[in-house]
């Protein structure tokens, strides 16, 4: 043990205002093609250093357990941590404002013109790029845990349950979370 | 405006909000049942196309509910559906997280989070696999996926560049 055993878990205790939260999540919302998780992680961990890699995964895991979109929950949690209720409100508003306007504009275009062939091609290409983004995020989220066999086993079971057996996410989380927590608890004793 | 439709939208999505553990994608089948089979707001094909639209647009996939609301009752429908889907889970999360962070039992918190993290990793990996399998039909898809992965995993460049390229290629008919 070193003199500061928790350093890898703690980011620089940044002073983040409600305004920072709004603007930060606004960029996430605007950029968030093909799912917001990769962009949120990039902004929070890599660009602004609001959380460390491990802190990000911890907070995301907590949000995963609560109902609602994970990233919306994450914006609420992070907003509250840095700036209280106003921070939560600022973060979630920033996250949703621009995408709401964009998706409505697209919805109107769709209602007016339907799905043209060119748009189909654009969607296909964007889907392929988005897949790469989520692959990279999976790699980055897994990296800090790669030397912990129990974490790899649990992650592998969750993966197979969803991909191999097509189980709904809810059941996978509800079934696996208590087992995994109990395992970590035993190891920590 | 049709107040009865707005009321129906709010009623359905408030309920969905509180059961959507794992996010909006967990309740897509239920959204389909409500929007297509129960309320007849749209056809099966429209649902699939709006779902693709919500996924391709920037922002959380939960905005699928904005499109359903828009289809059912115009702009006010979109607002009503979005607020109904987001507000209950947000309030719940807010109080749950506050309680969690105020708790002083650092050891228990640490163990719970260390236990939950691997589940999250498995789920992110699973969605990465499923998205990749759905996205790669030909060599161009494979190149775009691999290129974005490499850019994001190994460099500090903003992957938005690849999305711009993907859009441009699609618009000139290469897809």
Describe the structure.
The complex is a heterodimer of chains A (189) and B (175). Chain A contains seven helices and no strands. The two termini of chain A are 17 Å apart. Chain B has seven helices and no strands. Chain B has 175 residues and is mainly α. Chain B is flat. Chain B is 79% helix and 0% strand.
Compact description:
The complex is a heterodimer of chains A (189) and B (175). With 189 residues, chain A is mainly alpha-helical.
How does the helix and strand content of chain B classify structurally? mainly alpha
* Strand and helix order of chain A: HHHHHHH
Percent of residues in β-strands of chain B? under 5%
- Give me the Rg of chain B, rounded: 20 Å
Largest interface: A-B, 105 and 97 residues
Give a quick account of the main beta sheet of chain B: strands, pairing sense, barrel closure: none
Question: β content of chain A, as a range?
Answer: under 5%
Helix fraction of chain B by DSSP (H/I, runs of at least 4): over 70%
Q: What profile does the largest beta sheet of chain A have?
A: none
What is the element string of chain B, with H for helices and E for strands? HHHHHHH
Shape call of chain A: globular
> Could you give the distance between the termini of chain A?
17 Å
How many DSSP helices of chain B?
A: 7
Radius of gyration of chain A: 19 Å
Are there runs of chain B of 5+ residues with pLDDT below 50, and where? none
SS-derived structural category of chain A: mainly alpha
Transmembrane segments (chain B): 68-95, 116-136, 156-174
Pfam family, one (chain B): Chromate_transp
Protein name (chain B): Chromate transporter
GO molecular function (chain B): chromate transmembrane transporter activity
């Amino acid at each position: 043990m070193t003199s500061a055993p928790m350093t890898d878990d703690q980011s620089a205790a940044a002073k983040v205002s409600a305004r920072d939260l709004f603007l930060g999540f606004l960029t996430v919302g605007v950029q968030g093609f093909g799912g917001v998780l990769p962009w949120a992680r990039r902004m929070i961990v890599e660009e602004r250093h609001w959380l460390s890699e491990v802190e990000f995964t911890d907070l995301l895991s907590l949000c995963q357990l609560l109902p609602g979109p994970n990233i919306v929950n994450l914006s609420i949690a992070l907003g509250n941590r840095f700036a209280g209720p106003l921070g939560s409100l600022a973060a979630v508003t920033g996250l949703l404002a621009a995408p709401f306007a964009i998706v409505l504009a697209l919805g109107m275009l769709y209602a007016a013109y339907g799905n043209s062939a060119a748009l189909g091609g654009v969607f296909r290409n964007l889907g392929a790029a988005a897949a790469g983004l989520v692959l990279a995020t999976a790699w980055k989220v897994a990296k800090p845990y790669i030397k912990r066999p129990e974490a790899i086993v649990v992650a592998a079971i969750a993966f197979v349950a969803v991909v191999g057996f097509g189980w709904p996410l809810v059941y996978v989380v509800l079934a696996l979370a208590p087992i995994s927590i109990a395992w970590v608890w035993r190891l920590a004793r | 405006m049709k107040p009865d439709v707005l009321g129906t939208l709010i009623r359905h999505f408030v309920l969905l909000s509180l059961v959507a553990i794992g996010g909006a994608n967990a309740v897509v089948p239920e959204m389909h049942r409500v929007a297509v089979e129960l309320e007849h707001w749209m056809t099966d094909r429209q649902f699939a196309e709006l779902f693709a639209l919500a996924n391709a647009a920037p922002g959380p996939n939960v905005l699928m509910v904005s499109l359903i609301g828009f289809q059912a009752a115009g702009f006010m429908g979109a607002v009503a559906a979005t607020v109904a889907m987001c507000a209950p889970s947000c309030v719940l999360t807010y109080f749950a997280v506050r309680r969690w962070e105020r708790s002083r039992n650092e050891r228990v918190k640490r163990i719970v989070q260390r236990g939950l993290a691997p589940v999250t990793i498995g789920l992110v990996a699973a969605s990465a696999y499923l998205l990749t399998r759905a996205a790669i039909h030909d060599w161009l898809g494979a190149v775009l996926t691999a290129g974005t992965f490499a850019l994001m995993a190994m460099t500090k460049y903003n992957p938005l560049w690849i999305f711009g390229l993907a859009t441009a290629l699609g618009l000139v008919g290469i897809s």
